[in-house]
Amino acid sequence: MASCGFLAKGGLLLLSLALIALLIVPGALAQESNAGFQGTVKDPTGATVPNASIEVAGPALLGTRKVQTDEGGSYRFAALPPG
What is the tens place of the pLDDT at every residue in 28-80? Predict the structure, then answer.
């Protein structure tokens, strides 16, 4: 009877490990499907340019995306498709 208890505990352990693996593996296999970039707009003297319009375009984008720089001249494009 002791061996049945051991098998039951071993089976429970195996089942627990399988469930944990099912929860972890999809996240580990996921890949990032978008990208982004950021920067700062400066004039020829090196001063930052606030409220500058920045536009990005490309075949994968299906159009354009536009942003304006903040008061420090910084901009950021996020969630752009690859390519």
Answer: 555 667 888 999 999 999 999 999 999 999 888 888 999 999 999 999 999 88
Beta bridge partners of 37: 77
Taking a C-beta distance cutoff of 8 angstroms, is the pair 61, 81 a contact? yes
Burial classification of residue 32, based on how many CB atoms lie within 10 Å of its CB (0-12 exposed, 13-18 middle, 19 or more buried): exposed
Reading the block at residue 4, the tokens are 């049945």
Structure tokens at 29: 């296999």
CB 77 within 8 A of CB 56: yes
Q: Are 73 and 40 in contact (CB under 8 A)?
A: yes
- Could you tell me which residues are beta bridge partners of residue 43? none
CA quadruple 48, 52, 57, 61: dihedral sign: positive
